[in-house]
Amino acid sequence: MGDRENVLLAKVDNVKNISLVLKAINFKSHGVCFASDCGLKVVVEDSKCVQASAFIGNEIFQEYVLCDEDDTAMFRIDLSILVECLTIFDGCTTTPGATTALKMSYQGYGHPLKIILEEEGIITDCSLKTMSDCEVLDFEMVNSDVICKVILRAQNFKEVLVDLDSSSDFVEFFFSPDDPYFRITTEGLAGKFEVDIPKHSTIVETFDCSKPISAKYRYSQIKPCLKSLLIATKVSIRMTEAGLICLQFMIQTESKQFCYVEFYCTPSIDGEM
Question: In whole angstroms, what is the distance from residue 107 CA to residue 65 CA?
Fold first, then answer.
């Protein structure tokens, strides 16, 4: 069938611009793909308390065409298999600077997502089954509900999270307009651990907090963020009065463009330190 019959057609010269971001949210096997005129958004959820989404803007692609009367296309897919397909050529080339080109096409409800990868004349054709269950939770934050917003250098913040006691069941985030400003606390087999990040620390780019607020999250909720921190340049943290937290990661692709990954986590009601 010709390309004009596709609901979605997307082409990119370097598949790593896509796979790099999708691997960051691949902590669960399935994800929901939403295509709009702005680009692709892939959403992953875990137990209705963690939601991760990767947004790949249409400017990342050399060609991006969406032909749907609703200006959207959506489907659920096995994200682990998708990532495996996108990385099938990783480490195979011996030519410096060689990249793998990707073509994705989707013909609509009930049809598979078709993937064609080409590197140095070698072509791989994949067809991935799609599902119609596209329901996801709405974790959008209203600006008026946000109590604090902090922007940090991702590399430095990664070192903080990596050092957290992994034997701890919970992680507490505390923000305040006054000292200690930003404190992370865990309590595990090694005892109680606290790390403070002052407002004027070199790793802090922006700090805005209207009043003291704290919330506890299960360590298992925070741990998947480390994948994004490994490849991000900046991380923005926002928290509402109800304790809903959003960590947004800015990720630079191999083409020096930017994609974004967001993690929403709900607080643990029965968490105790």
Answer: 12
Q: Token pair of 19, please? A: 């796979």
Residue 113 sits at φ, ψ, to 5 deg, of -90, 120
203-223: pLDDT as tens digits: 999 999 999 999 999 999 999
Structural element, H or E, at residue 19 = helix 16-24
Poorest-pLDDT segment among 130-139, 148-157, 194-203, 223-232: 130-139
The upper half-sphere exposure of residue 155, i.e. CA atoms within 13 Å in the direction of its Cβ, equals 2
Would you place residue 143 in the very low, low, confident or very high pLDDT band (cuts 50, 70, 90)? confident
Are the beta carbons of 246 and 141 closer than 8 angstroms?
yes
Phi, psi of 237, deg, nearest 5: -120, 125
* Residue 109 tokens, joined: 């409800």
Distance CA 68, CA 61 (A): 18
Residue written as tokens 């607080």? 267
Assess whether pLDDT exceeds 60 at residue 180: yes
Mind listing the pLDDT tens digit for each residue in 91-125?
776 677 789 999 999 999 999 999 999 998 899 99
What lies within 8 Å, CB to CB, of 213 at 6+ separation is 147, 148, 174, 175, 176, 239, 241, 243
Distances (CA, A) of 165 to 138, 162, 186, 227: 31, 8, 7, 17
Strand extents, DSSP E, the chain: 8-12, 30-36, 39-46, 50-57, 63-66, 72-78, 101-106, 113-119, 122-128, 130-131, 146-153, 170-175, 182-188, 191-197, 204-209, 213-218, 232-240, 245-252, 258-265
